[in-house]
Design a protein that fits this description.
CATH class: Alpha Beta
Radius of gyration: 19 Å
Distance between the termini: 51 Å
Number of helices: 11
Number of strands: 7
Strand order of the largest sheet: 4-1-5-6-7
Structural class: alpha/beta
Shape: globular
Number of domains: 1
Strand content: 5-15%
């Protein structure tokens, strides 16, 4: 291959990453240092980190990566303990591939813009649910009977080995780019408090869906252990206890669910209160103030 062709390909790759950087709202250059009492903070991941359910969605023309505000990332930023460099998360993101910007692409873009670097001290991430097929599980379980639901949950469980390996790879890449960062890996809440009366999901189906979430969280926690074994300062943050009593069918739900529109983007995502609960989990369990010392 000639040097001219190599130069063209490198230029095209760089131009593509620059386009992604603009779509994510990142600056094409190193991030400035945070004040001494704050941590440089970067967020990546799927719809939970993109703020889905917290408020109005921002869907810029020409990009498939969109977010909603104010999500937990913004809530953490408002504490004054961190200096948010960028939230690169995208609604619907897979670990790799897909029509939305994948977690892998988010990380590559942050590397290109140098927004993820040795001065980064905190990274938060939610990922894995889309790869494990949580949405297909919900669709399969909605009024289709327990057997169909159980088969969908079994299929999701069958994908968890691949999901866990992909998550461990993502954490390792983040650590390589930001070796001084605490990587806070957030799990997912149980969606239901199993009970009869839901028009779409029976109590037995709700139990199965919660089981799928439990197994997904276990795979995520396992990937964190692997990342720690490889030297990453990673921490799994389990939110299931925090969300107990606040499922979609509770008297005080912290998870959005519009029964009149079962296809709403916000369904089964934290509402504004739920996102604040995620932020509280980070502040109390990861303790950014201590990381700054």
């Amino acid at each position: 291959m000639s040097d001219r062709i190599l130069r063209r390909r490198r230029a095209a790759f760089a131009a593509g990453l620059a386009t992604l950087a603009l779509a994510l709202g990142t600056a094409a250059g190193p991030a400035g240092a945070a004040p001494a009492s704050q941590l440089n903070y970067v967020a990546v991941g799927d719809s939970y980190t993109a703020g889905t359910g917290a408020g109005a969605a921002d869907k810029p023309a020409g990009t498939t990566c969109w977010q909603s505000t104010p999500g937990y990332v913004g809530d953490v930023d408002k504490t004054g303990r961190v200096s948010l460099v960028v939230n690169a998360a995208c609604h619907g993101a897979l670990l790799t591939g897909g029509t939305e910007m994948s977690v892998q692409t988010q990380i590559q873009t942050l590397a290109y813009t140098q927004a993820l670097n040795a001065s980064t001290k905190l990274v938060t991430i939610t990922a894995g649910a889309n790869d494990a097929g949580v949405s297909p599980v919900l669709f399969a379980c909605a009024s289709n009977g327990v057997e169909v639901c159980a088969n969908a949950v079994a299929a999701s469980e069958g994908a968890l080995g691949r999901v866990g390996a992909g998550l461990a790879s993502a954490y390792a890449t983040i650590h390589a780019l930001a070796p001084n960062a605490k990587i806070a890996v957030l799990g997912y809440p149980m969606l239901f408090e199993p009970a009869d009366g839901n028009p779409y999901f029976s109590a037995d189906e709700q139990v199965l869906i919660n089981l799928a979430t439990e197994r997904l969280n276990s795979a995520i926690a396992g990937a964190v252990v692997s990342a720690k074994d490889d030297g990453a300062d990673a921490q799994f943050v389990d939110v299931t206890t925090r969300f107990s009593g606040h499922a979609v069918n509770s008297d005080d739900p912290w998870i959005a669910y519009n029964s009149g529109n079962p296809l709403a983007d916000s369904n089964f995502h934290p509402n504004s209160t739920g996102h604040r609960a995620y932020a509280t989990a980070i502040m109390t369990e990861v303790k950014p103030a201590k990381l700054a010392k």
